[in-house]
Amino acid sequence: MKEKVPCNVVIVTKEPDEIKLIIGILNKSFERVLVVSSVAGLTEQLKEEAAKVFLISTEIFADTLSIYYQALEKADNNFMCEHAVVALIARQQEQDAFEAFQRGVIDDYLVARPLYELHRPVVICHHLLQKMGLSLKSLDFEEFIIKNDSFSDAAKMIISSGLERKTKLKDAFHDSLLKIELSLDNAAKKVAENKKAHLNLEELEQTLSAIRSDSIRPELLRLQSKALHLLQQIITEEAEEQADEEREVAAALESDATATKSGKVESFNRLHNTGVKNVNIPEADTKVYPKLLIVEDDAISLNITLMIFQQYKLEVTTATSGRSALNELMKKKFDLILMDIFLPDTNGIYLLNQVCHNTGVNQTTPVIMLSGNKNKATVQKAVSMGAKGYIIKPLCKNIAIKLFEKYQLPLYRKK
């Protein structure tokens, strides 16, 4: 039986005849293009595993947003495919669409009525799918250069030489990723055998810092998975050795601990410099546990945070994008929110503003911002928007305990 081709391009419209030119162009470039006409149809496609670009066409731009966010609300919270949203608009609606794009409400837009650039729909879909890590098949560049009579022989030679060099550089870069993958495998094996492991961190940092392309995401995800496996082994071993030491440190710091009564915002990791009270973490005697939302798109950082909290009885919800975070925030009251500044589809500060200044169940929930760097302007902006704290990643266990103590949230150890 022939394997079903995954659908990566979905058009949402009640009037397919009005955009039949776009549908025809996309059908020529993609193996499978699906057309749906309702919120229910869009919701079903959000549940399908394959990454997708949704092109939504309505008479009024506001209806495009309404259709998409209704589908988002109805989609299964346990799984939603990675996707991007493109609004197909009339020329007079461009200003509204542009402002929505700037604020991360949509991923792109296209003036489709009238359609000025015939191949622009294909370009937009290719670009967004590559951002999601899909490797799309490229046509041979040699054929394009040889058959193009508008290029002189000298131009053809220069272009061919440059493209060949780009290909070699790309191949060399992929080779370096394979070397890193092998070194992670070797390190994990040695740790499992209780042997000393060695990683060339300088080479690792140099290679990863050179990454600028989303098209190699599959390789990065594989490396990320192996790095997490290695971290899990190391953290599990060290956690047992450090448990007694942490209790001693907490007890020693008790005499120096002073409660923060002014309500002043804890920024620049100030929490790290305050004492830890000798918290008696009781055995669970109630079914009401603190509800924690972690908004973080980086898998390694998210898993390190989850490792800290996994020994406690908490109701932990995670979101890896602004959209999924908003969805969780609309339907559930949390006791504490840890939110990354930089998210793939929006800015964490914009999301913070939505939480703190819109009427909703989480308007008064303390939000702690997380970031990989310390930027004073960003801290000040976060504070002005309502953040209660600002922590430099990665989050450590000491600071996590202080946060729960500060907001009087009980921590119950798992048995």
TrEMBL record:
GO BP of this protein: phosphorelay signal transduction system
Sites bearing 4-aspartylphosphate, chain numbering: D340
Entry keyword annotation includes Coiled coil: yes
Identification of the protein by name: Response regulatory domain-containing protein
PANTHER family: TWO-COMPONENT RESPONSE REGULATOR, TWO-COMPONENT RESPONSE REGULATOR ARR22
Domain Response regulatory: 291-408
Keyword Lipoprotein set for record: no
Species of origin: Pseudoalteromonas ulvae
Keywords carried by this UniProt record: Coiled coil, Phosphoprotein
Coiled coil feature spans: 187-256
UniProt cross-references to InterPro entries, sorted A to Z: CheY-like_superfamily (IPR011006), Sig_transdc_resp-reg_receiver (IPR001789), ST_Response_Regulator (IPR052048)
Pfam families: Response_reg
